[in-house]
Structures are given as structure tokens and as C-alpha cells.
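can u do me a favor
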């Protein structure tokens, strides 16, 4: 899989990468996904290709879900790297977003996105506000599969690291 030069990273990517700590506990349908997440996190760290919001809303979410000590997992190492380097990112890659109720001024206005998760809107607002509209790396949140076409219509790309897994889970959910 080709990874982008610049991107946003949904929190479930480093969280999924942390599952590599104990391979025996990884469900069989997630094995490839965990490896893809490890590779994505390592790519972002090596290339310094992360885009964040200036107000640290994404960073705060990372901090709530990952270890700032940088261990024991790959995702935790990512957390420490973000902490240690976020102020070194180019100014263009630290985007200002404006909170508006449960959403953001920069969140795109599209009928297909009205039910988009409030907690994930920050990623889309940042992607939309960035001049290059970088893709959002997504691992296991199957709801995003249902929004991918609407996001594409407003110029935002979601790069699914675990597309087979996410598509199957989305089909299970909508079939119920």
C-alpha cells in the first residue's frame, strides 16, 4: 500500500498498531490490519508527515488513548513522537479549526455527512482546512466506509488501511 506524503491519522490507527504487542491475541481477521497500521505509523514517524490542529484537539484525543511514555506498543511510540515533535511541524501542517457547537466551521456542509460522528469531525475539519486536503488514515471504524463517497464529493480522501475488514464490518452493520 502506498502511503501519502502528508496525512491525518485517526486514533484507531496507532491503537490498532498497539495490538502487535501480543500477536496471539489478534483476531485472525485483523492480522493484516495490525501490520498495515504498524507500517503506517512507522511511515508517518519516519517521514514526519503528520497534519494536526493548532489547538491540540487531535493530540488530546491521542493522549487519552495512547501512552505518552512511548511504550510498550508501536502506537505508544507514535504518541511520544507526536508529543516531542508536534511544534516542529511546518506551520502549514498545524491547522486552525473553529469549534461550533458539536462540530467545526471547517467541517464540510454536505447532506451525506450530517450524521458523521461528532468525536471524529476534528479530523475532517483539519483535512478540509489544510491547503492540500491531506487524506485521513483510517483503520477499523466501519462507519467511515459509509461516509467515504460523501467525503470524496467534498474533496476529502479517506485511506482505509484495513479496507476488507472495514467493508465487511460495515456490510454487517447495515444488513442488520
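np, heres the sequence
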Amino acid at each position: 500500500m502506498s502511503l501519502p506524503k502528508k496525512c491525518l491519522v485517526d486514533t484507531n490507527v496507532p491503537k490498532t498498531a498497539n495490538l502487535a504487542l501480543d500477536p496471539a491475541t489478534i483476531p485472525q481477521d485483523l492480522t493484516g490490519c495490525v501490520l498495515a497500521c504498524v507500517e503506517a505509523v512507522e511511515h508517518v514517524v519516519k517521514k514526519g508527515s503528520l497534519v494536526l490542529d493548532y489547538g491540540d484537539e487531535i493530540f488530546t484525543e491521542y493522549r487519552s488513548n495512547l501512552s505518552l511514555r512511548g511504550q510498550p506498543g508501536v502506537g505508544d511510540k507514535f504518541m511520544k513522537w507526536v508529543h516531542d515533535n508536534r511544534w516542529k511541524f511546518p506551520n502549514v501542517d498545524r491547522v486552525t479549526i473553529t469549534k461550533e457547537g458539536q462540530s467545526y466551521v471547517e467541517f464540510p456542509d454536505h447532506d451525506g455527512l450530517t450524521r458523521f460522528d461528532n468525536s471524529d469531525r476534528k479530523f475532517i475539519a483539519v483535512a478540509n482546512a489544510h491547503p492540500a486536503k491531506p487524506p485521513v488514515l483510517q483503520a477499523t471504524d466501519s462507519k467511515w466506509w459509509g461516509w467515504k463517497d460523501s467525503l470524496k464529493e467534498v474533496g476529502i480522501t479517506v485511506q482505509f488501511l484495513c479496507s476488507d475488514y472495514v467493508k465487511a464490518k460495515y456490510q454487517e452493520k447495515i444488513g442488520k
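The radius of gyration is 16 Å. hope that helps!!
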